[in-house]
Amino acid sequence: MKYHKRFWNPSLVFSILLYLCGFILFWEWLRPLEFISDTGNITMFIVYAVFCFFLSTLKVKWWISSPLKIIGMLFIIDGLFLQQTIGTQQWFKDFVFQIQYNAEMIGDHQWYQLTPFFRSLLFLILLWLMSYLLYYWFVVVKRVSLFIILTFIYLTVLDTFTVYQADASIVRTFIISMFALAISGFSNQMEKESVRPHYGKWFGSILIPVLILLPLVTLLGYSAPKFDPKWPDPVPFLTSTAENAGFGEGGNSSLQKVGYGEDDSQLGGSFIQDDTLVFEARVERSHYWRIESKDRYTGKGWERSTDLDYQAQTNGNIDLALFSDEVETRELNGTIQYTDEVNFSKVVYPYGIEKVSGADQVSYLLDQQTGIIEAEGPEQQGVLATHDIVYQYPSFSLNLLENAGDNDPNHITDLYLQLPNELPNRVVDLAESITMDDETRYDKAKSVERYFSQNGFDYQTEDVAIPGRNDDYVDQFLFETQIGYCDNFSTSMVVLLRSLDIPTRWVKGFTGGQIANDQVITSNTENTYQVTNGNAHSWVEVYFPDVGWVPFEPTIGFSNTVDFYQETNTDQDNDTETEETATEDEEEEQVEEEQAQEIDEKEETVGSSATQNDRWYFPVIVVIVLMILVSLAIFTRYRWLSFIYVRRYNTFKDQQSLDKAYHFLLRVLQHKGINKTKQQTLREYARDVDAYFETKQMSELTNFYERALYRNEQDLKNNVKMQELWENVLKRLWS
């Protein structure tokens, strides 16, 4: 019987296709993480998941795949969190310290204290385990329905209760699910009836119809008419106590409770007021309470373009310079007392914050980019109970702002001039029209700030539009609705100024609050201000060279609480003129030193950025190279194993060596497509192999093997002849 070579068979191809479908469905579980969590680098986790699934597809032995997966995991953890060179003594110390610290937190049930390092490590282990679980579901037992149902439930819940828009995910999941169900059903039926389609015909019998029908069904579902939802949005109804919450009119009706929230990626929609007390501030004067800033405008809302990088602040001394030493300040003190209703662990602080001191064992972490100050302590409850603050509250000179110029540092322009490519041109045209008569940056900022109060815009929290799929949030507010609250006004001002190449950022926190009912406002003494969820607010900060970040307030009905003053110019006497002349050279030298220092800082920033990029890409490159090497090793394993076996068994000294060599030859024959059926004896199979090669060597070798096996010929008198036959058949397979 003449056999045809084949390297693939239907069962193998079906298994690979099913496992690929399982990975794509699992990918849909990973996509929402960057929207609903603080996971900043989801790409690294996806790469590791691909690596784990890839090794499972190749059926690599566990004692090979496990070390490879551990190595890949360590490279990713190193690239994301560890600063030392991987493999060094200090690197191992840092790694062990992280494990010990998090083990202690688990033992003390302090789950919120687990570090990002440990959470990422656990997530990588989860990806490893999921590759095994999905391999069992999709390839071994071919029961794909359960995971498909769970995927649909997962996506619909996220789409309903989070900001993640799962429209495209559900369509992708439907297509992949139908394909997986078709392949799984056909494969199960084929095994049940012991049917093996002829090579070359199985593809046309199952895959082509599926590939034709799936696009048709998808196109039909996409083009079919769709009715508006009959049920209201359940989220507002469940999260608020307002009457008829969630029962709005039109497609843009969506109610939310007012208050501070971390997710600003989807702005718009109506608010219901909430006067729940968040904190009380005992300070001399009322002012805004800052929490964070965001720099990336998406067309729908705000995101951070960089990952949070918290640095511990020694003894509560906050190293946050929002403005330069040129700004006049006044030192003030205060006390902030949070209520049990506070739903965040971030510190609220005034401009010019210098020091925060709270309860014992409470430490403070600062992210320079966003200005977030996190409080950490041994217990979550009470971390933000009460803390004292010391701050240098600023007063900005109008002369200094008007003469600031536009020589912005690169690290400022790189982050705070970003705009989406899809921003409508009429937004840019409007910004130029508003500021056409202005010369200085300050004048332009003030013109944009005043624009809203002079052109018919209204402040309200009800019936506020949500931008559609093809709408820009700012464009819709400026040219269509002109109705909104602080987010609309502040975001619009940021975008208008950025379109004029003025670095600007979006800031959020709370307004000053209301004076306590039992107090009368006094000067030069502390007053108690009560700040509620209803005081949550957003405003704008504009960057001025040599000055820093200056707050502006574009929202109608709100006023900027930061002081501005105009310097008076008087005639200078001769002594002053002489003094200025004498110090002129010193000022020039100081300017030169500052410029040199600025160049050094830029070089350090570029070097640091390049190092971080290298650290990010290095694990990915290593994982890819490992995947390529493992693939080559797996696909060529029988070839290099044959070379090893020939060197090892150059003579059959005992029955064990003959048995291992003969069974290895059988595996190589199976790999080359010369399959042995369950009903065939070794002699029958040997005759088929000889028919394939047109020799009698396999039959002779099998005859010697059976005699040695069944007659228990321990001396193996013909071992040299058997070794020659075995080696000749093996070499023919690779010729």
Describe the structure.
- With 735 residues, this protein is an alpha+beta fold.
- Helix content is 49%, strand content 14%.
- The protein contains 22 helices and 20 strands.
- Strands 3, 8, 9, 12, 16, 17 and 20 form a 7-stranded mixed sheet that branches.
- Helix 3 (42-57) packs antiparallel against helix 4 (62-80), helix 4 (62-80) packs antiparallel against helix 17 and helix 19 (655-671) packs parallel to helix 22 (719-733).
- It is elongated, with a radius of gyration of 35 Å.
- The protein starts with 9 loop residues before the first helix and ends with a helix.
Summarize the structure.
This protein has 735 residues and is α+β, with helices and mostly antiparallel strands.
Set down the secondary structure blueprint.
Blueprint: H1 10-30, H2 33-36, H3 42-57, H4 62-80, H5 89-107, H6 116-140, H7 145-161, H8 167-192, H9 202-223, H10 234-239, E1 255-257, E2 270-272, E3 277-283, E4 289-294, E5 296-297, E6 302-303, E7 310-312, E8 328-338, E9 353-357, E10 363-367, E11 372-376, E12 386-397, H11 398-402, H12 410-416, H13 425-434, H14 441-451, E13 458-459, H15 473-481, E14 483-484, H16 486-498, E15 504-510, E16 514-515, E17 527-532, E18 536-544, E19 548-552, E20 563-565, H17 574-635, H18 637-648, H19 655-671, H20 682-693, H21 697-710, H22 719-733
Parallel strand pairs: 1-2, 12-20, 13-14
Antiparallel strand pairs: 3-8, 3-17, 4-15, 5-6, 7-10, 8-12, 9-12, 10-11, 15-18, 16-17, 18-19
